[in-house]
Each structure stands twice: as structure tokens, then as C-alpha cells.
Amino acid sequence: MKRIGVLSDTHIPKAAQDLPEKVYKELRNVDMILHAGDLVEISVFKKLQDIAPTHAVCGNMDMPEVRATLPQKDIITVLGFKIGLVHGYGPPGRITEAVRSEFKRVDIIVFGHSHSALSKEIKKTLFFNPGSPTDRIFAAYNSFGILEIGEEVEGKIIRL
Hints:
CATH class: Alpha Beta
Number of helices: 4
CATH topology: Purple Acid Phosphatase, chain A, domain 2
Radius of gyration: 14 Å
């Protein structure tokens, strides 16, 4: 079993100076971290790497240094499951279609952009948006996520 911490839209230091302590507490117990973009500053990525191996992509609000360092999308394989990682784009109501068009054959798509948490299987693909732990624009609550991968995949949204 692998436990993966999932973040997106942290917007540091614009939305907050740092992640909430509850996020760090959970991340200390994961095997890997995924960040689906809008870190804003590269220091966020470096801090996450100090906690656990971290894969991240850039988002539309990221500074030039982040865009130069991180890819726009990535595919990570964990215990045989392919995870597509992308920030996302376009209107929130059509975001699952937008991120789906970025990948051919993946089991899970981790994305952000809308700030609204989602863990939903659509046509045998798990669409997982952890929401934002720091910014509530377009969302009713702040959140992040945990993916547990073993023989099956379970996506958990953690409200802050």
C-alpha cells in the first residue's frame, strides 16, 4: 500500500504564508506527494521535497521560475497504476473534460485549478482534485487529499 499526499492551488505566499499545520502533519505520513500546480513560488516545491519524494506540475498562476522548473503535465506510475498529473484550465464546469483530453491511458487524473475538491470515477478513471488548502475562491471549504493505492485506489478529501 502506498499513501500519497495530494495538493493543488496552494498559492503561497499570495493566499497564505504557509500551509496549515494539519497538512504538514498528514504529509509526514505519506510515501509521496503530488502537487497539481499553482504553487506560485518554487520554495513550496522544495519544502515539500524535504518531507517526501514530490512530483509537481506548473499552473497558470505560477511564477516564471516555477514554470521553468516544472512540467505542464506528468505521468507517474505507482504500484502499476498510471497517474496523470496536470493543473487544468478553462471553466470549472468543464474541467474534467479538459484534463481528460491531456492523457490517453491513465487510471487516475490528479488536477486542480477550480479549487473545488472532487473524487469521482468517470468511465473507469478516477478524477481527483484535492481542492485548495489556502484559498476558498470558487470553493465552499479548504481541503487537500490523500490517495491510497494498493490493489485498488481510494481517494480521500480532507477538509480543513
